[in-house]
Amino acid sequence: MRVVALVSGGEDSCFNMIEATKHGHEIVALGNLYPQNIEVEELDSYMYQTVGRGAIQFYSEALGIPLYREPITGSPVCLDSEYKVNEKDEVEDLFRLLNRIKKDLPFDAVASGAIFSNYQRVRIENICARMGLESLAYLWERNQSELLQEMISSQIEATVIKVATLGLDQSHLGKTIAELQPHLTKMAEKYGINVCGEGGEYETFTLDCPMFKKKLVLVESEVVANGSDVHHLLLKSLKLVDKKDGQE
Question: What role does this protein play (predicted)?
Answer without folding.
Answer: Amidase that catalyzes the last step of diphthamide biosynthesis using ammonium and ATP.
